[in-house]
Design a protein that fits this description.
The complex is a heterodimer of chains A (about 500) and B (about 300). Chain A is of the alpha/beta class and about 500 residues long. Chain A contains 16 helices and 22 strands. Chain B is globular and about 55 Å long. Helices cover about 45% and strands about 10% of the residues of chain B. Chain B has a single domain, classed as TIM Barrel. The chains are: A alpha/beta (about 500), B alpha/beta (about 300).
Chain lengths: ~500, ~300
């Protein structure tokens, strides 16, 4: 047939051998720098402790620096709270609880929380800039995800404050008292919102400690809380490292511990509160399985894998760090993934076009490098983007490992960086077994065009959150939390109220 | 020959990859968050001008209208020196000769719709004659429509054979296959129709006639670009893309360019492989280019409306 002959010998020189074809992303039309202005943010040279509605000097008179991981420059210094400061903060919270907050009508409490959310929205740009400067995440993410989601969280729980009788029908609920809250460095403002909003809505008072590498947005939130005229002592925000956190956890007048962070620290906390009547929620590490079946919408699945593991430089406890691909489509998926990764822009977090910013700290970058070595030594095949990295600052190319087995450490341990381990599977049962074969159980993802397969999997998966045909989606109305060593208790949604109340 | 046999091995089109609506729309939206400034904006805008198929497809088209449009195609805005021309002028077959003559020596291509455009509801021999006529009148490119009715009825072989036959009738003219995505209904079907068109011999796949709403959208174009990428992976053959209808602002056109660059890469960033089917986009792009030069927007009165 003439048509076939024409196709075999085309006139245009557009046909290449298909095994050598490669898409090119590195030359030609490129984007000029589009940096967000730093002047949108006011960062003071020094921050004290926010206790009882006032900024108080640390009794040890010690301060430590917080730096911009993208430039290694010092941004500010913050107070190092010792046990005496913690004690001051807890007693301020106790007094505020006894005298004001627990007696205030719930609808009045709600107004304060609403006011905080409105002010977070009003100062969104400043908060986004500070979050990016202090933590290294791309401005696109802090602007489009962290800050708006934090505001939404306050809005959502403000709504619950005077409706608790509907949240727990035919039951009576009472607040617990003082909540000690310790949050991580990956989503500093958002985690503060996750902790503070439900605690206030249910009538508790708070002592919150942000992570030592990313304290600035929490301190900005303290300024907002002060401006919102929240009664003194209802929210206290104190900075410091592990010792400060330990002092909060072991303080006898704290009724509830809420912690998000590493599994190791979570175990320490659990040990330290054993034998007390402190309640706790622990939201710890993860090694989420993201599962792609051969009938999945592959291009969208690839995008989901990108969002799953390279969002926030992979500093996400629910990151989809174990990718399971059905063998029949593994080659295609890996090829698409590599092409997609080549288009990710790595660099200045303040640039509006940056997809992957700076690793949060030098220490974390070293941890990631250690795992890259481990992976290579274990015989897995490492591939990384060909993108250039800035000379200064802590950066890591988006990386993936193929030829990985369940027995590899890079398939078992949480790396907390932009590193994906790819494993293959053949049958549904096999992949469910492999996915559950982990000490963690925080989240998972399933990609298939077949609804029944989704329900079969989600029912059998031991993970707190299972996303179907999407990944890393968060909403204040949706509960979040883990199984096994990923912790216990739920945050968000109706479930997120429970850890902060006594149900009678 | 190995290459030939792998190309003649046709896939089962009913098994074309499925598309997740939420995912593809989210991905398309993400391209719009790219911030295109300064030099990259100016270069992008010029590239867009050079990718436009300046189009008039009206029942009331006359020689005069087409001649004026052709003059505009060659002289987009003489007040700014060094501007490119558009890629092609797109007209009905009866207007091809006029356009051919008016564009003589300019390097601008003449594209002609054919195959009983826009409905495609005519017997095959009429579609073939329509195509041969346009080619004999001097069309460099043929924009055909697929038989959407047959496609919806599941007669993929019919659709495939028709495209292959038109391709043969095109001779040296490049064939753009219009899927009319606004009539296909789902992204799954857009993907399936794209696959059929490419395997049947399309040089370009094109979203819309411009006569049906919705016309081109970013998610639909993304689905088609991904189909082109998969075809390229498999066969090594490049296929062009033409979103048409509904793209009238330069900002949106820049988003399309970003999407093209990040899905198919640099090789496609030329009017040989990407076109905008548009009638009013050019003036908006010109307005932006003048603004980049002078720092102020000029009123629409300064830009000719041929």
């Amino acid at each position: 047939m003439a048509v076939t002959r024409k196709k075999a010998a085309p006139k245009k020189s557009s046909t290449k051998k298909s095994n050598t074809v490669k898409l090119k992303f590195d030359t030609g039309w490129s984007y000029d720098p589009a940096p967000e202005s730093r002047s949108a943010a006011t960062i003071k040279p020094q921050y004290d402790l926010f206790i009882n509605g006032q900024w108080q000097k640390p009794s040890g008179k010690k301060y430590f620096a917080t730096t911009n991981p993208a430039t290694e420059e010092k941004l500010s210094e913050v107070a190092d709270a010792n046990a005496a400061d913690v004690n001051k903060a807890v007693s301020a919270a106790r007094t505020a609880y006894d005298k004001v907050w627990s007696k205030m009508p719930a609808r009045e409490r709600a107004k304060y929380i609403f006011r905080i959310s409105r002010m977070v929205q009003e100062k969104a740009r400043e908060l986004a800039v500070i979050e990016t400067l202090d933590g290294g995440k791309p401005i696109r993410e802090s602007r489009d995800f962290d800050v708006p989601t934090a505001a939404n969280h306050f809005f959502y729980y403000a709504g619950w404050a005077d409706k608790l009788e509907y949240a727990f029908p035919n039951r009576q609920v009472a607040p617990l008292g003082v909540a000690g809250q310790i949050i991580p460095w990956n989503f500093p403002l958002l985690m503060a919102a996750w902790k503070i909003a439900p605690a206030l809505a249910t009538g508790n008072t708070v002592v919150l400690k942000p992570a030592e590498t990313t304290p600035l947005t929490a301190l900005k939130l303290a300024e907002i809380i002060q401006e919102a005229d929240l009664p003194p002592g209802v929210v206290n925000i104190i900075t410091g490292a592990g010792a400060t956190g330990a002092a909060i956890v072991s303080h006898p007048d704290v009724n509830k511990i809420a912690f998000t962070g590493s599994t190791d620290v979570g175990k320490l906390i659990q040990r330290s509160i054993a034998g007390t009547n402190k309640k706790a929620t622990l939201e710890l590490g993860g090694k989420a399985a993201n599962i792609i079946f051969e009938d999945a919408p592959l291009d969208q699945a690839v995008e989901g894998v990108i969002n799953g593991i390279y969002f926030n430089q992979g500093h996400v406890c629910c990151a989809g760090s174990r990718l399971y691909v059905q063998e029949s489509v593994a080659k295609t998926v890996i090829r698409k993934l590599k092409d997609r990764i080549e288009t990710l822009i790595v660099g200045d977090p303040m640039d509006k076009n940056t997809d992957i910013g700076a690793i949060n700290s030098k220490q974390q970058l070293e941890t990631i490098h250690r795992y890259l070595d481990i992976g290579r030594r274990e015989g897995a095949e490492m591939w990384e983007s060909s993108c250039p990295l800035p000379r200064k600052g802590y950066f890591c190319r988006p990386t993936l490992f193929t030829n990985v087995a369940q027995s590899n450490r890079i398939a078992q341990e949480e790396i907390f960086g932009p590193v994906l381990s790819i494993l293959t599977f053949r049958t549904d049962d096999e992949v469910i077994e492999k996915a559950n074969n982990s000490p963690f159980g925080l989240s998972a993802g399933v990609w298939t065009d077949k609804g029944s397969k989704i329900f079969n999997l989600t029912r059998r998966m031991r993970a707190g959150v299972v996303w179907a045909n999407t990944f890393n989606k968060f909403d204040p109305s949706s509960p979040f939390g883990g199984y096994k060593e990923s912790g216990f208790g739920r945050e968000g949604g109706l479930h997120g109220l429970m850890p902060y109340v006594d149900i009678k | 020959m190995a290459a030939a046999s792998s190309q003649t091995m046709l896939p089962d089109f009913s098994l074309s990859p499925r598309i997740d609506q939420v995912g593809v729309e989210e991905r398309a939206a993400r391209f719009t968050t790219r911030s295109i400034k300064k030099e990259s904006k100016l270069n992008g805008l010029k590239l867009i001008l050079n990718m436009i198929d300046l189009t008039t497809l009206e029942g009331k088209d006359t020689d005069g209208k087409v001649k004026q449009l052709c003059y505009k195609a060659m002289h987009l805005h003489d007040a700014v020196p060094g501007l490119p021309t558009v890629a092609a002028v797109c007209v009905y077959p009866s207007m091809v000769k006029v356009a051919r003559k008016a564009l003589e020596g300019s390097g601008i291509k003449v594209a002609s719709v054919s195959t009983a455009f826009p409905s495609g509801q005519a017997p095959r021999d009429i579609k073939l004659r329509d195509t041969r006529f346009a080619v004999s009148e001097g069309a460099d490119e043929i924009d055909m429509v697929i038989s959407r009715g047959r496609f919806h009825a599941g007669e993929y072989n019919f659709v495939f054979d028709e495209i292959a036959a038109i391709k043969e009738a095109c001779g040296d003219a490049r064939l753009k296959v219009i899927l009319e995505t606004g009539e296909l209904g789902t992204y799954d079907k857009v993907r399936r129709a794209s696959d059929i068109a490419m395997y049947a011999g399309a040089d370009f796949i094109k979203t819309s006639t411009g006569k049906i709403q919705p016309a081109a959208t970013m998610p639909v174009t993304l689905v088609m670009l991904e189909a082109i990428r998969d075809f390229y992976y498999k066969t090594g053959k490049m296929i062009g893309m033409k979103p048409a209808g509904g793209i009238s602002k330069s900002k949106l056109a820049l988003h399309y360019l970003v999407m093209l660059k990040e899905v198919l890469g640099e090789d496609w960033l030329t009017n040989e492989w990407f076109r905008f089917g548009a009638s009013s986009l050019a003036n908006d792009v010109l307005m932006q280019i003048v603004k980049e030069h002078t720092g102020v927007y000029q009123s629409a009165n300064y830009f000719s409306v041929d």
